[in-house]
Design the sequence.
């Protein structure tokens, strides 16, 4: 309830970009960049959780790697299929995001992991070469 009260008090749903939530996000991102040793010009955003973060990340990857303007032409203009590689330990939101983005669950290739839960590189190389 306190979080809802704070969110309402910040009123981040107002028109324009001069509301407190923007400044809070910028400050938190600056702290994260500093802690992780990222350059000052690095960018980012805060999300509501891993599901939204995965959806945003896969949207950016799809739109960047498509080779055409997906937002303008849609996926029907796609000259080739796309593939998403992840580990067998990947959060279920990745498959949901792939389906929501119109890529289809067949494009998702889950790679096995070792005892340290790292993707087995040989399997990944084989998967990519198929």
Sequence:
């Amino acid at each position: 309830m306190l979080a809802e009260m704070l969110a309402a008090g910040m009123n981040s749903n107002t028109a324009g970009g001069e509301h407190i939530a923007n400044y809070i996000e910028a400050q938190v991102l600056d702290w994260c960049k500093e802690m992780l040793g990222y350059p000052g010009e690095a960018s980012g955003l805060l999300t509501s959780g891993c599901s939204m973060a995965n959806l945003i990340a896969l949207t950016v990857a799809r739109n960047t790697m498509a080779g055409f303007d997906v937002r303008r032409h849609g996926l029907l203009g796609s000259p080739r299929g796309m593939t998403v590689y992840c580990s067998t330990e990947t959060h279920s939101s990745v498959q949901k995001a792939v389906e929501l983005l119109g890529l289809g669950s067949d494009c998702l290739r889950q790679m096995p992991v070792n005892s340290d839960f790292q993707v087995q590189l040989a399997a990944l190389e084989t998967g990519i070469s198929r």
